[in-house]
Every structure is written in structure tokens, then in C-alpha cells.
User: Fold these one by one.
Assistant:
Number 1:
Amino acid sequence: MKLVIGSTGASGAVYLQRLLEQLDSAQHEIHLILSPFARQVIRDELGELHLPERVHEHNDRSMNVPFASGSTLFDALAIVPCSMGTLGRIAAGISDSLITRAADVFLKERRKLILVPRETPWNLVHARNCCRLLEAGAVVLPAMPSFYGKPSSVTELVDTVVHRLLDQLGLPASTAYRWLESPEP
């Protein structure tokens, strides 16, 4: 699978880190784009991002990459986390960075586009932008962790969102959903 992972300046860099840790970069071609604000949030929240080997990193200001054009086939683009500003620019068709251009290409080519907003609460503009993107074929997967499996750590809580994202990509999670393993009460 050929994947593009973008990240913007919303809080939640841990979701990006866990996704990168769970993708098999030996089996899949993975391209990464970090917005300037994503880099700042990563420094503030994680210190640094640990990239697996074979992940190809691209500058958000460059358009000289294969997935910025519909003529090169890629399977999916996930923006993790996705700021509401980026989500709004994508919904309006504004391609002013590599991340928003790639999202525009994935929408026009009817390829899988997954946006993981973390911001809450939403205002009406946020909700309408999400509706526009859903109507255009994107998947909006808010970073809303679940508690069914009684997560015992922040990592397990984060993984409830990352595993849903992996499901949307059609990829197995490295560990099973805990609540599927737990007997019913």
C-alpha cells in the first residue's frame, strides 16, 4: 500500500507517533508531510517525532512530489491530527500547501482521504466543513478515544483512535481491540 500521512498544528501529536509506530514501513510505502505548526506542536508535546526507517519525509511548501498529482496512484492520505483550519481549507478547495494540495488530489481522484480532527467543541462552521468533506467522499474520524476496553494507559487510550484509523485504511492493528478480547459484563 502507498500511504501519505500528513500532520498539522492541532494538539494530538501522540496520535501521529502511534500511527507511525504501527504502520509497517517495510511492507508499505509511507510518505510524511508535517506542516510548520505540526513541527511546533510535536516539539511541545513529544519533544521529537521518532520516524521509522523508510518513511519518506516531504516539505509542506513543495509541490514536487508524486502524490501532488492525480497521475500517480497512491492508496490513501490520512491527516493526523488535522487542525480545523486545514480541514476548512480542504473543504473550500484551497490548495496552498502540499498537505491541502494532496487532499484536493485524493478527493478529485476518489481516493481514500481520512481527516482526524482533535479540536472540540465545534462551531457551526466546523460542522458544515465536515459535512462538505463527507459529501465529497472523505472520512472524518474525530480523535475521540473510547473506554470500552478500560484502557490502563494513555497509550492504550490513544490506540483506540489509531486502531480505528488503521481499520479505515484496511490495515490490521498491531494489537487487538481490548474490548473484543474482554468477556461481556
Number 2:
Amino acid sequence: MAMDQMTIEKFIEELSGDAPVPGGGGASALVAAVGMSLGNMVMALTTGKKKYAQYQEEIEASIEKATGLTKRLLEGMDKDAEAFEPLSKAYGLPKDTPEQLEERTKIMEAALKDAAGAPLELMETIMEALKLLERIAAIGSKIAISDAGVAVQLCKAAMNGASLNVYINTKLMKDREVADAMNQRADRLVKDADASADATFELVAAQLRN
């Protein structure tokens, strides 16, 4: 069963077990999807309100975009598992002879690249969600502004979580040029995400406390 089709109880049960997937990557994807859904809720509570009529067209576009992003984030749960499966199998390949070791190293390298690529793709999608949440927090209904703040914190946590799934795989890669490029891309995304999330959270907190 696809992970995004599981009940919450079933997913938590699977996550708690001794299988390698779902793991941190799948959990990060789910957390980000929950965050984006919260942002979508803010827009649902804003659309059609006279007070925000000037933003109505943008609100409708935001709802459509948030719905698409949530779907992509949920799909990231299974993409992470699918990317890890070849790596899991590669660890079990024989390495008793030089030929076997060479073949195992080749397969491992390709599997590690794919296993790092999945969370990198997830990080790109989370960044899109955070950028949308910036705007949602600015134009969304003030009665739901706290939910926008929760949403960015969830997406920030998901971004940082996904980055660790990049680094754990690039660390083992033989091709350091490729590994460094992937690490640098992840570093940039984390930096941009933290800046975006922190600014949005501060905007929300200031409105709630003042």
C-alpha cells in the first residue's frame, strides 16, 4: 500500500518498526505535507471574505498551488522509500572477490546518488511550500494566522530533516565532486528555508503578541 494511502495509525505503526522504510525521509515528507495543508486551510478561511476581496484572485491561485504541492509532498513519502530500496539491496551484494567488490562499488555509487536525490527533490518542493506560506501569512485571514505560523515551523523541520537524508548518503559516495555538488545544493536550500521560515514565523508571532 502506498504510504499516502495509509491511515495515520498504520503509518505510525510502520514508522515505529524495524524496517528501514518509512524512515526520516518519509516522515519529513509527511510533516511538510501537513504544513502545506495548514497553509491551505488559512486560504480556505480567507476566500470569499469581503475584508480580503482585493486578494481574491491570488487566494484562489494559492489554494490551487497549495493543493498541488501537498500532493507532491505526500508522493515524496513513497519516492523516498523507492529510492532507498536499491541501496538496501546493494548493501547485501557479495564482495569476496575483486570483481564482486568492483561491481558492488559501482552499484552502490549509483544507489547512493539516487538515495540522496530523492530527499533533494523533496527539499526543492518544501522550499516552494515555504515561499507560498510567506504570502499566505501576509494575506491570509487574521483569525487563522497562528496556523500559518505552525505551517512554516513544520515545513522548516521537514526541510532540515530531509537534508540529513541527503548528507548520510553523500557521505558514502566515492565521487566527491557529485557528492559536494549535492551537499552544496542541500546547504543552500536549508539556509534559504531557515531564513524564509524564521521571517514568516516572526511576522506571525508579532501579530499575535502585539
Number 3:
Amino acid sequence: MPIDKRVAAAAAAMDGVRDGAVVLISGFGGAGFPNVLIRALCERGLRDLTLVVNSATHRYSVTHELIEAGQVRKVVCSAARGHAKGLSAFEERWKKGEIELECLPQGSFAEKIRAGGAGIPAFYTPVGFGTELAAGKETRRFGDRDYVLETAITGDLALIRADRADRYGNLAFRYAQANFGPAMATAARLSVAEVRIIEDAPLAQPDIQLAGAFIDRVVAVGDMP
């Protein structure tokens, strides 16, 4: 792994990504969406992608461009409904059977990614037991409570947004911008970060919120579009 992880452009940061990739994408409540990288992935024209993203249709994310282009085979998320009136592009495709959906409780979604990054293949949780979300999943009783077995999530590619980076890939986030990004970076074979700025000097140790050991490529894209 190179020590200098800077990449000149978002398009180059997508080198090596193939059809059928499982792509983890950060973002929550309007913060931390790597929209420049998402567009670069879209422009690559890949097919049969699986997106692991908290919201399939968030109005501040451009994941819908991948979906509208027919590049996505499956979405794993905790929120599938759109904010606008009527159905989103994702919902329309799902109704027609053109795209798969795996909907998860948000805590389980986060823990499945964290577990994947930690090398834990599966875990039991009481969340979702007795609901449609647990259909087809193994269950087990511990003490006086029933639990659902959830398997870990890992991916081929993680796309995350941070505020600042250095050439070594160390990242500093701005407030809620961190959300799922740090966990996703640990759970993917290739992790790419877009940032507002890449500092000339190494980030100060107290400022580092995600170590560069988990980041393979970093690209400066300026302020959020």
C-alpha cells in the first residue's frame, strides 16, 4: 500500500472497480454523502452493483443516479422510502421487480458493517425478532429472550466523505459527517475518501478520526456541491 494516497481525480479513484461490486456508501441526515465519488462510479458505467447505504433515496445523495441508470441490482438499507411526493426511481424499480431490497433496522445495519470490519462473521440481536425483517433468518433463545442471527456485511468498495485528509489517508470529519464512514472503511477491500482539502502537513494526532491504515485512496473535491 503506497504511503502517499492522494489521487488527482475522482475518476482515477475508481480504477479497479468491476461489475457486480458491493459498494458501501456513507451518509446520514444530509451529512457525509460522497457525491463526487458516486458520480464518478456512475460515469464508469458498471452494472449489477449492490449498494449498502443507509437511505436508498435521500434527497441530498446522488445514489439515485446509479439507480436511474439501471446500474444497481440490489440495495441494502434501513430507509427505502423517498421524501418527495410520489414514488422514487428506486421504488418504481422495486415495484416492477427490477431491483432487490434488503431492509434492516438501522442499528443492525450499522453493527453488520462494524462486524464485517472486525472480522466477526455474524451476531445475535433481539432487534427484529417476530417481524417480517427476521423472515428466513436463524433465531435462537438466550435466557428468556429470542434473538435473530445477522450476518456481517463486507464490500468491494467503500465511498466516504470527510472534511480533511493528509497524504497518508488520515481523515478528520466535520461533526455528523462521520456517521457510517469509519465502519465502512474497515469493511471494504478498497476504501476511497473524498475530502474538502488535503493538508500539506500530516494531520495532528488529536484531529485524526480515522487512521490512514483503513483508506487506500483520497481525493480533494472542495466543498460539498
Number 4:
Amino acid sequence: MKYKCDKCDRPATYHAVEIVKGEKIEKHLCDECAAQDGMGLKSVHAPINQLLTNFVKATSGTEKPEGSASLDLACPDCGLKFAEFRDKSLLGCAGCYAAFEAPLSGLLERAHETGNHHIGKVPRRGGGASEQRQLQITRMRKRLNDAVEAEDYELAAQLRDDLSDLESDGAGASA
């Protein structure tokens, strides 16, 4: 069923239903009348990933220009820069939380109702050694990628072998 604008009889493109004091009020307005009432629609629909990225940028508490110091921060474990996080909305490793603590704290507090520290469980069988091993693997992978990019294939081969040994030791321990 096509509706006409409540104000000017043009085809309605804006439809709203409000309940005021238990009474249902329907509004059918054209674009111009909706804009006059302050209810105009945006003509461009953004994809969800763009909306989420814009949300992260707006709520991360880092509304600073591109050349600002917080955008130059980098995680010492995985090498991710804060500017990359803002673009992709993904952190690289657990160390990113510590490296980006200041700019992320506002975002995390809003997302977790003023909480910004994890209070969940830690696996009993893993303990701290598991976290250290995972951190070491992450660092070695970063060094391996850097060696390949620098075309230092001897170092890359050694790191690959060391990484393989470290990962296989961990697989045997958890079995």
C-alpha cells in the first residue's frame, strides 16, 4: 500500500510510528516535509564494517589529527600500529592491550560498562607459562616476517625451524 505525505500529498518516503501516552501515532512524510520536521533520511547507506570502524574511531577517545602521537604507538610484541588498529578495528595480540592502554581505555570502559580489566577465568593447566610461550611464538613470527621482508633467508630458515620446534613442544605438552 502506497502512502501519501500527511502534509502535501506527495508520495511518502518516511514512515514513523510513535506511541504517545498509550496512543499509536503514524506519520507518513515525503523527503522535503521530513527534512523540515528534522527527520530527514541520509541518502547514502554505509556498509556495516564502515559503520563499526567509524564507531571505533569516534569512541576510542583519540580524536586527534593523523600525525598525533597516539597514532604512532606500536605494539612491541606484534608490531601493530595504533593507526592500523583504527583502520581495521582488530588488535594483533594480547600485548596490544597493554601497548594501547591509554587510547583504548575510554573505548573499553564504554563497551564494558566502565570496566576495562578482564576479570574472567585463567585456564588452570596453562598458568603463566602458557602465556609466556605464546608471547615468545608471537615475537618469533614477527622476527620471521621481518627477516623474509629483509630477504635474510638464512635467518628466516633458522627462525622457521626454531618456531616449528617451539610450536611442536607446546603441542606435545598439551596432549
